[in-house]
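retry 2 of 3: previous attempt timed out while embedding zinc ion. Reduced batch size to 1 and resubmitted. Inputs unchanged:
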Amino acid sequence: MPATQTTVIKNGTIVTHDLTVRADVLVAGGVIAAIGPNLSGDHVIDATGCLIMPGGIDPHTHLEMPFMGTFSADDFESGTRAALAGGTTMVVDFALPDPGQSLMDALAVWSNKSARAHCDYSFHMAVTWWGQRVFDEMEQVAAAGITSFKHFMAYKGSLMVNDDEMFASFRRIADLGGLAMIHAENGDIVAEMAAKLLAAGTTGPEGHAYSRPAQVEGEATNRAIMIADMAGVPLYIVHTSCEESHEAIRRARQAGKRVWGEPLIQHLVLDETEYFHPDWDHAARRVMSPPFRNKAHQDSLWAGLAAGSLSCVATDHCAFTTAQKRFGLGDFTKIPNGTGGLEDRLPVLWTCGVGTGRLTPNEFVAVTSTNIAKILNCYPRKGAVAVGSDADLIIWDPEAEKTISAAGHQSNSDFNVFEGMKVRGLPRYTLSRGVVAFADGKVTAPEGHGAFVPRKGTTPVNTALQAWKELTNPRPVVRSGLPVTGV
Ligand code: URP
Ligand code: ZN
Ligand code: ZN
Ligand code: ZN
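retry 2 succeeded.
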């Protein structure tokens, strides 16, 4: 379709995070040009029986990630293809500098990787080591539109940073008006527990779960929140998987701290029994950090999404093949950590959330798109159905059904952790900046269609937090004179 032509979406119901309304949507030049009754355009998309929602934003992916001696199996090509097929129109991936590597060099590597993306994307920058060079370059990274910085409290010996490094980094992020992000698990304890389990003969995937109990996540979450509070920086905690971590986030938010928690779709619906499956491959394919938890933890996460104490549902899409998972035969610490989910996040969340009454359709939009667009400061360009917003839209058929299977999925992985799950609620069309990017079961946006979405720092949250910290900063007591001593 020529860029000058317009498209109108008719007969659908618009669902945003705060509104449900029947109206047509006119798309021109890649953005939403009008919303209202009886609109007309050069092309018509019929949304009869469908909901028109903002495209999903997945704030947590690892495409072509170098990790644990290999690379994750989905790159920006297959990963963003999977995203569009599942109604996600933007992914945010992590640029990962090697120890000692320049942040700007790492960014150049990730920009290169993303050239074939089918949908829009942005980056977070990982702080994997600390030094003057990192401190200096963080400003350039922020100026390049990457204002969120991720820290790993786990993966000792590779990605992990220590408390003093985190504190220094968090203070720098506060000064730059950015967002601190955390993978919260106590890496020292995990490493000790894993070594002990291996020595005692537990070599299978169940050892992965035993070595990373909820307490190690809860402790790290509390610690990260304290460090962020001392540094005066907003904090986003990725893959919140348990009540211990959720409780820390809930308490921080009630105390007025600027903290957000992100459950994954995997943790919401898959549980720890997967690691005790008699088939090694089945269990190893589900190894990720943090591990899946029990039903009580899942209930806590669902409740947090409804209550607003947890904000976003992501995937942490980091797919591996069975052959890669088998690197850990005989030693669970060598099983590459990660699972896929990009194509399945929205259908599974709709089925298990909206389909059961745990979430309203508006809450679904909030936790899959709008909340993260606000947190990452790309709202209302993304995450909205509003005049002037990018026309990243899903035409969602709440009655459409399928059974999830690796046989038909877009991912390069040879398995799917949701294999056999029947979902009800699927995208009929996905639009990316006005282009029909998925239709009739096929991804139609060309490779390279995806564009980088730069983001600015110094959000209203940064400004408010800085003002509050300035007001409540410790101040020296001004005394009129010193006591006379030696009299
Ligand atoms: O197991 C996981 N989550 N793999 C991806 C890297 C990370 O920790 O997010
Ligand atoms: Zn992580
Ligand atoms: Zn991750
Ligand atoms: Zn392609």
